[in-house]
Design goal:
It contains three helices and five strands, in the order ααββαβββ. By secondary structure, it is an alpha+beta fold.
Length: 107
């Protein structure tokens, strides 16, 4: 009985820690909303990945370099940097980019 109670107490402590982690994390919908506010209407994303306090966005923009400045000015994001070369899309007037961001206060 004691072993079962100890196991249950351990499981409850792990669940409580997990809930606290979830509550402290920035919701993905908030990150998406902030990106929609920051990025120009001419920019569109093809991929967004959120993991361990990092956001990786991929997409097309008229001037990809200008996105870094806008993202760095956000109170939500920091350490914006390209993770792949910016490439001019041959079939459109845009540059393909991949940018990594840290979420403020995470990691």
């Amino acid at each position: 009985t004691r072993a079962a109670l100890d196991k249950r107490a351990t499981l409850l402590a792990e669940l409580k820690a997990f809930r606290n982690t979830i509550e402290d994390a920035e919701p993905v919908s908030g990150l998406w909303e902030e990106l929609a506010r920051i990025l120009p209407d001419s920019t569109y994303l093809t991929d967004m990945e959120v993991k361990d306090g990092k956001v990786l966005i991929t997409g097309y923009a008229a001037e990809a370099a200008a996105l870094i400045v806008s993202l760095e000015q956000s109170p939500t994001f920091e350490q914006a940097s390209f993770t792949a070369p910016v490439i001019r899309a041959f079939d459109q007037n845009a540059e393909r980019f991949q940018i990594s961001l840290s979420v403020e206060g995470e990691s």
